[in-house]
Structures are given as C-alpha cells and as structure tokens.
Amino acid sequence: MTPRPKSSHEPTREPVVFVVEDDELVRGALSNLFQSVGLEVEVFGSASEMLQSKLPDVASCLVLDIRLPGLSGLDFQGELAKANIHIPVIFMTGHGDIPMTVRAMKGGAVDFLTKPFRDQDMLDAVMVAIERDRKRREAAKILANLQTHFETLTPREREILVLISSGLMNKQIAAELGIAEITVKIHRGHLMKKMGARSVADLVGMAETMRIRRTKP
User: Fold this and answer.
1) Helix ranges, the chain (H)
2) Which residues sit opposite 62 in a β-bridge?
3) How many Cα atoms sit within 13 Å of 10 on the Cβ side?
C-alpha cells in the first residue's frame, strides 16, 4: 500500500513537511518548529500511518526517524522509491552509525541528522529538500508538457525532429529521407509550431529534455 496523491482539483497549498516519528514529544516539537516559519506540517506515528494517507500534490519533504515501530525508516525510504514517490527525505536518529548513514545517503536522502540536533540545522535541511522537490516538480511538468506536444507530431515530423536534434542541416535531412529540401522546411515549420519552439536551438533543447536521440549514425 502506497500513499495516494490527493485530487488535483484541491486548492493549491503551501509546501508541506511530513514528519514520521513515534515519539509524541518529538513530533510536537518538530511540528511547532516548522509551523513557526510558516510551513504546513502533517505528522504520523509510523510509516504505515503515512502509507494510508492521501498526500497533497505540492512541494514537500519527509522528516523521517530511522527507528520506527513496524517498517523502519530506511525500509520506508526503499518502499517509496519502489512506488516511484520522490519525496526528499531527511533522516533523524539517536543511534546513527556510518553504514546506516551511507545507506540513507545512497538512497537519495538530503541529510542525516543525529539527535539532539540544532533547530536551525533541521530548518536548513528542510528548506534545501523543499527547494529540491519544487525543482523536480517543475522539471516534470515541463517534460509532461513537451511530451503532450510531441504526441501531436506526425511520424515524418518526428523523424525530422530526431535528425535536427542530431545536428543535420535541411539539405542533409532531405538527402537522408529522400525528399525535397523545401519539404523538409515545411515539415520543420509545422513541428516547430506544434512544439512551441521559437528557434531551432529551442527545438534541439526540447529534444534533449525528452532524451530524443538518433539511434543510428
């Protein structure tokens, strides 16, 4: 069972910090800390509680205790990765060791804080994590938009896009496809309009973002 995103029809919300910590006093202290700087907070006593919740579709991060009842923090990090849920994680523990830290950071954790930690260290880590998630979401939105435009291209326009992105000129593309150069120009004009590209360089950048590359020389 994985966390479910909330409906996209809900009002836009500010960034959210999720806290998974079994100690009620620590949960309360962290909640007060984050709210004191204007952040929204959702707290859970275990990984399973968070797994059963609906997550808002906004920039967020997860402050996660390593040692939890049931599913451990490190195992929860793995489950989120398997479910393709990319919430940046900040681990906290009172019993950290080097192998544990290495595993957490290899799993993509933003930071690993040992209790007791300074409030400012936690806030700094959270701000870095939220900014990372915001950038990831923006990049994903741009890519999805490009993919939507790409789907409107004809097979020939897609062929020409691939050849343009590989650096070929109109004359070379015409020779490659066995068509007239003027036909290449017409197709290029259509695909640039469909993709919303302002220039060939812009179009090449879009192809790079979508990882469109020529598979043969």
Assistant:
1) 24-36, 47-51, 73-82, 98-106, 119-150, 155-165, 170-177, 181-195, 200-209
2) 18, 89
3) 10
Is the pTM higher than 0.90? Answer: no
**158-187: average pLDDT:** 95
C-alpha to C-alpha distance for 212 and 34, rounded to whole angstroms: 42
The Cα–Cα gap between 73 and 63 comes to 10
Q: How confident is the model at residue 93 (pLDDT cuts 50, 70, 90)?
A: confident
Reported as type and span, the H/E element at residue 111 is strand 111-114
Largest CA distance in the chain: 74
CB-based burial label for 195 (10 Å; 0-12, 13-18, 19+) = buried
16 DSSP β-pair partners: 40, 60
- CA–CA gap between residue 214 and residue 151 (Å, rounded): 18
Say which DSSP state 5 is in. E
Beta strand ranges found along 37-93 (DSSP E) = 40-44, 54-55, 60-65, 89-93
Domains in the chain and their CATH numbers? 14-137 (3.40.50.2300), 152-209 (1.10.10.10)
What distance in Å separates the CA atoms of residue 116 and residue 58, rounded to the nearest whole number? 29
For the chain, report the end-to-end CA distance as a whole number of angstroms: 45
CA distance 161 to 91: 44
